[in-house]
Specification:
Blueprint lengths: L3 E4 L2 E3 L5 E7 L6 E9 L6 E7 L4 E3 L7 E6 L4 E6 L8 E11 L2 E6 L3 E5 L2
Parallel strand pairs: 2-11
Antiparallel strand pairs: 1-3, 3-8, 4-5, 4-9, 5-6, 7-8, 9-10, 9-11
């Protein structure tokens, strides 16, 4: 079983910044994509940002220009730097690690870290 652990959430004022970190216990050679998702109360989980092992990134329109996803493949880490935070960014943020094993894509999720943007 692959363990995925997020950290770095918290309470921040509008306009502030947070850096979320995620580590995982997967074999780095099997990692296909890593990413961050979020789920606000009463809403569906949505994509925030993805990064492939090759470094290709994808961002949700709502966070483009404000968030940067990065990875340290040697440490199996994926970080999300969030700037200019808005109250609507308040959500539980989840890290997902997608592995490619024997031709199958397998997703592993962390437990989530809470981000609250409020004055």
């Amino acid at each position: 079983q692959v363990q995925v652990v997020e950290s770095g959430g918290g309470l921040v004022q509008p306009g502030g910044s947070l850096r979320l970190s995620c580590t995982n216990s997967a074999s780095s050679s099997s990692i296909y994509v890593m990413g961050w998702y979020r789920q606000a109360p009463g809403k569906q989980r949505e994509l925030v940002a993805l990064i492939t092992k090759g470094g290709t990134t994808t961002y949700a329109d709502a966070v483009k220009g404000r968030c940067t996803i990065s990875t340290d493949n040697a440490k199996n880490m994926v970080d999300l730097q969030m700037n200019s935070l808005k109250p609507e960014d308040t959500a539980l943020y989840y890290c997902k690690v997608q592995l490619l094993r024997s031709g199958y894509l397998i997703d592993y999720w962390g437990q989530g870290t809470q981000v609250t943007v409020s004055s």
